[in-house]
Amino acid sequence: MNPIIITVICLTAIGVFLAAVLFLVAKTFKVDEDERIDQVEALLPGANCGGCGNAGCRAFAQSVVEASEMGDLLCPVGGSETMQKIAALLGREVVAQAPRVAVLRCNGSCENRPKTNDYDGYASCKVKAALYSGDTACRYGCLGCGDCTNACKFDAISMDPGTGLPVVDEAKCTACGACAKACPKGIIDIRVKGPKGMRLWVSCANKDKGPAVKKACSAACIGCGICAKICTHDAVTVDGNVAVIDPAKCKLCRECEAVCPTGAIHSANFPKPLDKEAVKARIAERKRKAQEAAQEAAKETAKEAEAIPPTFQSI
Known about the structure:
Layout: H1 3-28, H2 35-43, H3 57-66, H4 79-90, E1 100-104, H5 125-131, H6 147-151, E2 157-159, E3 166-168, H7 178-182, E4 188-192, E5 199-202, H8 210-216, H9 226-230, E6 236-239, E7 242-245, H10 255-259, E8 265-268, H11 276-307, H12 310-314
Helix pairs in contact: 2-3, 2-4
């Protein structure tokens, strides 16, 4: 018989045998997967951004199906609308979560935070952070190489050539958190958008003490605590020499923004520009009324003391 024909027959036989072995192995070790995983995955946007904390959309779908409750599970790209559809598919209830957006906690523009040296290496924030603290006197601020922009899959963040800082387009931002994970300085937060998009935040992460901070950046938070003292809602605290605004407690009165001596507190989407003088006048009037009330209370206490008979006063 022709050797070529023999070779073809042998290879064919080996191929059939191996295919049969693979088939039997696949059948033996087959893992039955819940068909709802495919259904949930079909409802997801397919961004595979990892903003949900899972490796991708399929991993998220699997975690949702296997979870006993929806809890804090959220697809940041699809938002509440997508989660409502998933909940309806699985016959569960889901608590609507407030929309979120990426926020930069750095005021260090080229004007506010002048360079102290020049970096001449690979343009990467991660590499730059590994080599040294940065090319300004602030070791907490933005490094300006745009790792966050490269990480964003939705073109929602870009570098402003004028300021040297990232700018977030909230219309495109899905709050997936990819930019926050990519930032080696950890100065990008995913915060609640607020009612009608209105929000306040402290645009600084420098934990050094006041004089050093002021020297490094003219618009940094110096940890003076004026904003915390003036807030009547306990929404502002000073942690590690940096003020922090709790969005759950903030009533958007903007008093903290008005009294901040360095302009470190930023606001977004308010219908009117901040009238600092009007706000300061309102604060002064509130203090005046509080002082008058305290004086009246002291007078009432004194009158009550005078009305007590001398016998009881000596006791």
